[in-house]
Amino acid sequence: MMSLTGIQMKRENTILGIIGGTGFEGVPEFEITRQQVVNTPYGEPSSALYRVSLHGNPSIFLSRHGTGSRIMPHQINYRANIFALRDLGVTDVIAMGAVGGITPQFTTGSLALPDQVIDYTWGREHTFFDNAVDLDIRTRESGHTEFAYPYDHHLRESILNCAKITGIPVIDHGVYGVTQGPRLETAAEIDRMDRDGVDVVGMTAMPEAALARELGMSYATLAMVVNPAAGRSDEPISMESIHQVLENTTDKAHQLLLSLSSVG
Ligand code: HPA
């Protein structure tokens, strides 16, 4: 495996946080140096936070759906997860996520780095700017966080650069439509999302991305396309086929993450 230490774009003092999604409960090559149970003013994160070493570079890993029992996308405590990562000093978050492909380029098995989001979720705790807890972050004058471009440009460039050097194909754009779940979509819902300009559909990118922005962290999603979205294939979507695809796709994602030993 090629190590990209010294990649031109490295920024100083970055600490990488990795949020593992479905089928991505860790990276075999991670060397876990410490497991930390963190509590936050918003409650407990989905899992312990693992301090890991990536080619000697410290990073922090969190399992979005928890280890053991599976937390459904609408029940994830996104605020606790993001707060805990920030609390441990994370500056840059790479969020892994399984998605369904809507537009033709996003074929099953591909990896994508979306550049936009449309949020179709509802009822989730989606901001740190409410009255629940009086935190330092509230010293900001306004809760109207700038979010025109939800994914961090520099972080995306770093990932794309690593992809290029390692020869792992990654689609360098895409609109991620976030649905509430846990059920999958109807074919008509997917048609509507297609008309909206959505390329891939998943259930977890929001409010995660917005919360990271509220706390000043850089954030990017590495999406693994694990099925054609509802109505886009003759076969119904099955968890069995998703898991089969994940086995291969996760491997590519692991390699990409390992190559990001210097990120920023
Ligand atoms: N829809 C929503 N979320 C998903 C899908 C899908 O088709 N595949 C993986 N996560």
Please outline the helices and strands.
Elements: E1 16-20, E2 31-36, E3 49-54, E4 57-63, H1 78-87, E5 92-101, E6 111-112, E7 116-119, H2 153-166, E8 170-171, E9 175-178, H3 187-196, E10 200-202, H4 205-214, E11 218-228, H5 239-259
If you had to describe this structure to a student in words, what would you say it looks like?
The chain is α/β, with parallel strands linked by helices and 264 residues long. It is built from five helices and eleven strands; from the N terminus they run ββββαβββαββαβαβα. Strands 1, 2, 3, 4, 5, 6, 7, 8, 9, 10 and 11 form an eleven-stranded mixed beta sheet that branches. The longest helix has 21 residues, at 239-259. It is globular. 45% of the residues are buried. Mean pLDDT is 88; it is low at 1-10.
Helix fraction, binned, reads 10-25%
**What is the rounded distance between the termini?**
20 Å
Query: Rg, please?
Result: 17 Å
Q: Which spans have pLDDT < 50 for at least 5 consecutive residues?
A: 1-10
Give a brief description:
The protein is of the alpha/beta class and 264 residues long.
List keywords for this structure.
11-stranded mixed sheet, binds hypoxanthine, alpha/beta, disordered N terminus, 11 strands, 264 residues, 23% strand
